[in-house]
């Protein structure tokens, strides 16, 4: 759908023909999201629809996500708690669970871990790439054979899921994420599958915790779970092993699918731009991760894992007050904060269509923003770039010419397959 087509087509549908308006909207989101957002930013930056109010300009997205007392996670929070079977920070706002356990999460997912998590990721990624390329096949599936496995092994080693197999970690989080993040119609089967997956992971982790409690701490692996088990909070917080369980499973739910998909979509965004790819390959080999990482985060600006996050407006709010787009958002509205649009807001981001590594951090919302921004960001910031870098260090491992965009969603909300050549030689590097 070309720019300027959408609103004319939408307005031509009778206002009470909600199914048709929603169908058009869904089609535009699925097939021409960037064009849709460009048109909305220019002509209807705060766009009320039957599925929610699209907020598309950068300052307005920030305004929504900075006011958790007004714009709550109530749209998906209850579903996430069904799936986890327990309260969790991403399901709550304000005092209590969110305030307290957000602080706890920052301690457990310590920023200081980043250098060793990068090394761990590099080692695991290389081992998985060696395994998949040793088989002799000309191509492999970057999502299923590499990113999924490497991400799960990093989770096992860093977060502490050792002993739970990779397939369980991946498939459970996939069903959980599908149920709480991308099931707006509350399809009961999707919901039930997410709840069952959450229960399955909970039970595995309960066994794991019971086992770890009996181990001598000296023999215990130095991972996030170990840190959680060594941490004693005041009794009045009621933070028992069930809370440890819910937080650890919640961290995995926030990480596993994201890391897997980001690896594939970042590689896609780099390989569709041959000049950028060549620069990124040079940066990958230069041994300066900070320079390289900027390519990956810029790539993800073009294809973020979370393009839109919903919030529930719980009291009337004047959005963008004092600007020409000032709009009253009535209480009980679902508000869709469109990260993918905000990162292309031409009034804030210089030449947004250009690929420019090293843009100001505030222009990159890939890890969220505000009260619920990614509490795993220090780990995410090294894991995702390193998973991509290990691929770029193998010049033969690339999508075949013409296949750079060929992400296959296999009927799911997330890319499931991405075929790449298996070129054999690794470039010796650090
Ligand atoms: C791998 C790439 C990752 C991406 C792209 C990513 C992205 C995001 C985004 C966009 C949000 C905000 C959601 C919202 O506002 O609705 C978020 C929140 C969160 N992320 Fe991540 N994340 C990643 C890795 C991780 C990791 C490694 C962990 C933990 C180990 C984690 C745990 C969380 C948690 C618990 C929240 C909720 C924070 C809160 O509610 O206060 N994420 N993440």
UniProtKB/TrEMBL annotation:
<comment type="similarity">
    <text>Belongs to the cytochrome P450 family.</text>
</comment>
<dbReference type="GO" id="GO:0020037">
    <property type="term" value="F:heme binding"/>
</dbReference>
<dbReference type="Pfam" id="PF00067">
    <property type="entry name" value="p450"/>
</dbReference>
<dbReference type="InterPro" id="IPR001128">
    <property type="entry name" value="Cyt_P450"/>
</dbReference>
<dbReference type="GO" id="GO:0004497">
    <property type="term" value="F:monooxygenase activity"/>
</dbReference>
<dbReference type="GO" id="GO:0005506">
    <property type="term" value="F:iron ion binding"/>
</dbReference>
<protein>
    <submittedName>
        <fullName>Cytochrome P450</fullName>
    </submittedName>
</protein>
<dbReference type="InterPro" id="IPR036396">
    <property type="entry name" value="Cyt_P450_sf"/>
</dbReference>
<dbReference type="GO" id="GO:0016705">
    <property type="term" value="F:oxidoreductase activity, acting on paired donors, with incorporation or reduction of molecular oxygen"/>
</dbReference>
